[in-house]
Design brief:
Oligomer: single chain
Strand order of the largest sheet: 2-1-3-4-6-5
Number of strands: 19
Strand content: 15-25%
Shape: globular
Helix content: 40-55%
Largest sheet: 6 strands, parallel
Number of domains: 3
Number of helices: 21
Length: about 575
């Protein structure tokens, strides 16, 4: 039997995934995937290895899980979903990964196109008629760098290679591929591949910059009296925190974060200035934005009109944000680690005794400010709270005492975000993940993916009750238990959507909603969240007494270390 009789596009697609270094397929399968399922069965029989399957009961979990694995390893993975319906369920997660610049390959089947010609893979059930929209890709087009429909069977391998190269090119991000069932099932003529064989596409990575541009910024820093850096996601590269620290120490420069996505500078560094750059923008004379999408909120921030601002960013123009504008005098797109290394070298070459004396004085002032802020943070956690109203700062402070420096913390506490950031300080690169997108429910699936990639690390996600609903928790704990991926969920239950209430108060501080206390944001306390985890075989705890916080957390961490997922449901200060 010839090669043309045995090879299908599904075979070449699997081979493309293997050759592109894809470790996992996070799957939510449907009728469109029959050719792939059959091909996988053949490969198993032949002893051939292909990406491991993680079956995910919901596409949102699958996408975030793939994203978590990519965050931990730097290698984008593949997600396999069902036609337009699965694409729609995956779209919210794809929004988050787009905003976080996390590479994944989202693969969706397409409903069969043929009805009467008896082609292999043609329509054979009711849903094949109703799952073909006019433009399936439009569902996720705003959130992907590239999209393609596999139109010819012999292209399968090259299409996968191209997709992976695009998603791994800077700035990294999601890509989308659709697979018509008839094409997937079609046979491949080896001769149609051509003389060059199977092609491998290479990603394009960000580089450094023109030395003259770097020297111009260095000169401004030498002349500065009050420099500041603002960052958010530089720490996605685990080499960045050390470079930021070196540059900050060299220049006596405050480093602030806004909408933190990663640990960009160790929290015990004297140069770490906290999470509110707006407190310092009016006095900053030279500023550096490094890998940050929104450095502050212009509506409520006063900025020194005479300040000089420069930008280092892997995505300087903000390709996926239609309108973006902050005061900038120099913009350089590239790898921030390389750019900062160039800047450090340039500043060192220009440094004078006068500059070094100013740096020494600024460093002392920043150290004192850092110590004062630590006292403020400690005071926030001093009060335990009361029954059914545990102080979230106290809870997070105790949680932080039970974690070690290598444990990974994902922060989706939303209106209690600062309690997590301030009371559970992270000082090791790769141990902190925040939400960059606007799609709530990201942390649970992402935690699973990070645990899959780092089985020897504890992974903890802190989530509000409102966000917890969006995270498809029944799917999360099913995956956690079935795949032996123990994670700790700390659920902060304030009874509703605090962000909705606070947003209304910002717009209408003396409005009717405030006068009548009607914010359409109360979800109540009737749900036993721990029972959701218990139903899947995970461990559930309920905590409403502040005197029991330490004991409850200790029990949860012990169960986690024994290899079982845990959900700690905590009643905090109500909405």
């Amino acid at each position: 039997m010839s090669d043309v009789d045995t090879r299908t596009a599904a075979n070449d697609l699997l081979q493309g995934l293997v050759d592109s270094g894809i470790d996992y397929l996070f799957c939510n399968l449907g009728t469109d995937h029959a050719p792939l399922i059959e091909e996988m069965a053949h490969w198993r029989e032949q002893g051939r290895k292909f990406p491991s399957l993680i079956l995910c009961p919901h596409e949102n979990t699958a996408v975030h899980m793939a994203g978590g694995y990519a965050l931990a390893t730097g290698r984008g993975q593949a997600v396999l979903v069902h036609v337009d319906a699965g694409t729609a369920n995956a779209a919210m997660g794809l929004h988050n990964l787009c905003r976080a610049r996390i590479p994944i390959l989202l693969i969706a089947g397409r409903a069969p196109m043929t009805t009467f010609d008896n082609s292999e893979g043609g329509r054979d059930t009711y849903v094949h008629f109703i799952q073909e929209p006019f433009d399936q890709g439009s569902v996720v087009r705003p959130y992907v760098k590239w999209e393609y429909n596999l139109a010819w069977p012999s292209m399968a391998h090259e299409v996968v290679s191209r997709a992976v190269a695009v998603m791994q090119s800077d700035p990294t991000g999601p890509v989308y591929l659709t697979l018509p069932r008839e094409v997937l099932a079609a046979h491949v003529d080896a001769a149609s591949i051509g003389a060059y064989g199977l092609q491998k596409h290479l990603p394009v990575k960000a580089q450094g910059a023109d030395p003259a541009s770097i020297k111009a910024i260095a000169k401004k820093l030498i002349q500065s009296d009050n420099p500041m850096m603002v960052t958010a996601y530089a720490g996605r590269n685990h080499q960045a925190p050390a470079q930021i620290e070196k540059l900050a120490a060299l220049c006596g420069m405050r480093v602030c974060e806004f909408n933190t996505a990663h640990m960009n500078l160790r929290r015990d560094s004297p140069f770490f200035g906290g999470y509110n750059p707006a407190a310092f923008t009016e006095q900053t004379d030279v500023g550096l934005m490094v890998d940050v999408d929104v450095p502050w909120i212009p509506k409520t921030t006063r900025v020194n009109p005479n300040a000089y601002w420069a930008q280092f960013d892997v995505d300087a123009i903000k390709r996926d944000i239609p309108m973006w504008g902050f005061p900038l005098d120099a913009r350089i797109e590239g790898d921030s680690v390389r750019l900062m290394a160039q800047l450090i070298e340039a500043v060192e070459a220009m440094a004078t005794p006068e500059f070094q004396a100013k740096v020494k004085q600024r460093t002392l002032e920043l150290s004192n400010a850092h110590a004062k802020n630590a006292q403020r943070v400690a005071l926030l956690a001093k009060e335990q709270g009361t029954v059914n109203a545990i102080n979230p700062h106290y809870l997070c402070a105790v949680l932080g005492q039970h974690l070690n420096s290598e444990d990974v913390v994902l922060n989706e506490a939303i209106r209690n975000t600062m309690a997590v950031f301030e009371q559970i300080p992270r000082n090791t690169p790769g141990t902190l993940v925040g939400l960059m997108g606007g799609g709530l429910g990201f942390s649970a699936g992402t935690a699973l993916g990070m645990k899959l990639a780092q089985p020897n690390r504890r992974v903890v996600h802190v989530v509000g009750d409102g966000s917890f609903y969006f995270g498809n928790p029944s799917a999360v704990y099913t995956i956690a238990v079935e795949n032996q991926l123990p994670i700790l969920t700390v659920l902060l239950d304030n009874g509703g959507w605090s962000a909705v209430k606070e947003s209304t108060l910002r717009m209408y501080p003396q409005g009717q909603a405030k006068n009548t206390n009607q914010f359409a944001s109360v979800l109540g306390h009737g749900t036993d969240f721990a029972a959701i985890a218990e139903a899947a075989g995970a461990h559930g705890e309920r905590l409403n007494d502040p005197t029991q916080v330490n004991a409850a957390i200790a029990r949860c961490v012990k169960v986690l270390d024994e290899g079982r997922s845990v959900l700690l449901h905590v009643r905090i200060t109500p909405l």
